[in-house]
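Known limitations

Files may contain more than one protein. Parsers should not assume a single record per file. Below, a two-record file is shown to illustrate correct handling: read the sequence, read the token line, then continue until end of file.
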Amino acid sequence: MKHFEVIANLRTDLGKKATKKIRKEGNIPCVIYGKNDVMHFSTAQSAVRKLIYTPAVMFADINIDGKVKSATIKDIQFHPVSDEILHIDFYEVNEKDPIKINIPIVVEGNSPGVKAGGKLSLNNRRISVKGIMENIPDNFTINISKLNIGDSIKIKDLKSDTLEFTDPKSNIVIMVATARVVTEEETEAEAEGEEAEGEDDAEKKDDETAE
């Protein structure tokens, strides 16, 4: 997985006035939660923009006054109107300890079921995995070349020598639905719409008769 360096400054004054001043200067108050300690620091909005606004999953190498800590993002608070970043919480990552993180899914191959008219459905674009930092990939690739109509791939079907999949085993990740099911659902929806229109017309006629 890619690493992204964040240049930061240690915070010693944690009061409200100091926090407002940090934000006014275009910086973000942040916290990194370690195994045995908690560090407060600030960093520029521009320093984390690429880390935040990217579809890729990255580890943050946070350089706090020369001391580097590897971390993942735990939570981000945004301003409700301007979407400005107000606060970021990080979790420190130890190279030897397993971590849990969500990574993107990449689909490869051509499904026979899709070629036959089925509809490919990707229920989740990310999956939760657990492993040590050096084994966490940028994404997890799933091959669909054996999926026929009605087939699916569940969490329990995924294999990896270095990762543990932590989502429920019965969760469906990808499936190929039948075209008939899709058509039936559309037909039912249309029928319900026509029935509702018919009821409205009947009500109008009753009202006209009553007048």
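...continuing to the second record:
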Amino acid sequence: MQIRGYERADNARLVEIWLAAVRATHLFLSEDDIQFFLPQVRDQYLPALEVFVALDDAELTGFAGLSGSKLEMLFVDPARHGTGIGKKLVDHAVALKGALEVDVNEENPGAVAFYRKCGFLPVGRSELDSSGKPFPLIHMAQLVHSTTGSDRA
């Protein structure tokens, strides 16, 4: 697997990955909610964030979007869930930025468990997401970062 920086030509495939991953993991969202977020992801977030893409045999399989040390987006093609792509993207971001922060939908327990496994701990909670919608967020941070899964100072 290879990780490289985002290129504008990646946009359509990354939107496909986002849509598939959201539909597979964000079961609390309606199709109307997904359609609300879609243009924001496609037209605002992907071009504005520092995005890294994962490639496996030249196929885009996942991506991470950062704003400073905050992980704003992490999505992996659902057909590749559980293969280590997400962890490698997190490790890549940690290597570049140090300890990270992330907001995770409370209603996505798989994501909460994934981030805990990556060394994130809950540090706060919000009733509304960043769009003001009633999707509670758990604010998580790597208080001591690690790329191996064990804490080190």
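Parsers that stop after the first record will miss the second one. For reference, the second record is described as follows. The longest strand covers residues 59-67.
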